[in-house]
Amino acid sequence: MANGKQDLPINQILEGDCIEILQGLPESSVDLIFADPPYNLQLSGELWRPNSTRVDGVDDDWDKFPSFAAYDQFTRAWLSACRRALNPDGSIWVIGSYHNVFRLGAILQDLGFWILNDVIWIKTNPMPNFRGVRLTNAHETLIWAARSKDSKYTFNHHAMKALNDGKQMRSDWTLPICTGEERIKIEGRKAHPTQKPEGLLYRIILSSSNPGDLVLDPFFGTGTTGAVAKRLHRNWIGIERDEGYIELASKRIEAIGVEAYEDVVFDVSDRKRKAPRVAFSRLLEAGLIRAGQQLFFRKDREVAAKVKPDGKLLIDGFEGSIHQASRQLSDGGPCNGWDHWYYEAEDGQLQPVDVLREQLRAGLGRQD
Known about the structure:
The chain has twelve helices and 16 strands. It has 368 residues and is α/β, with parallel strands linked by helices. It has two domains: 12-272, Vaccinia Virus protein VP39 (Rossmann fold), CATH 3.40.50.150; 276-361. An eight-stranded mixed β-sheet has the order 1-10-9-2-3-5-4-6, with helices on both faces. Strands 14-13-12-11-15-16 form a six-stranded antiparallel β-sheet. Strands 7-8 form a two-stranded antiparallel ribbon.
């Protein structure tokens, strides 16, 4: 797998404190970070079900902090180290619950990250509130943030739309918690109390990275991030201080067989967005569209505009670019003119003007 990051410890689990290790990585070397930090759940005492069985919850020492101030200090330190390692056009996903997510969001903004979305993970099978004193906590919150306001971050919009049956992906994701064969267990008990489902990481990594990118997880646990990254032909680095989790994650990831497809198979980025910009007026200069020619809005011959020599469209007294004319006909709504205007081809059929733009990009413009 091509990576271009040979000087980094790619596809490895680094044992130790995440802050120290992050500070030792080259600056701006990571493309995407997923972080599932301690939630600081502030649990007091054991929790029991109505049938007198004990709930196997999160009571590990790594989730305990003496105060909110101590938790904030820890959070600020590891997020600062992440920002240092993240490349200028990289992004970070951080997950939390009502116990900590508001503190995470404030510190992210304080450090200069630019919040892009908050995503609600709605659990189809949440743990009930056994005491009956609160609502069942049926969701967790993910914060997606760019390194800065000016970052040209990766977002594979069309891939997420395809993943959502052709509809734009929303910010509420309905997925089950990690159960069944996916849940790693030791002698019948959960190996890790907060193992995240692979489906959740699949959406995150697919949406925010490309093949060969480097994905880092500073709280690696049992290796879900590394497992999904490997399947999607991304490189990864995991940081984990617990030897037991490292052993489980290593075996899990090593067991994944990846076919030697070319990375292009896994490239779901919007190629049009990457392509060179082409102004509509270039179609006139290349002779692919003529001044005075009619274009038809959304393939409707009853809604026609005439092309002016400067590339503007004239329709019912309105004059503007293909995008402005589209908005005018769509009551001001957002409208990409390349997607909505059609021309009449030599065979009399209506074809999208975007076909002509692609001809220019491919160097096939007619030379008159």
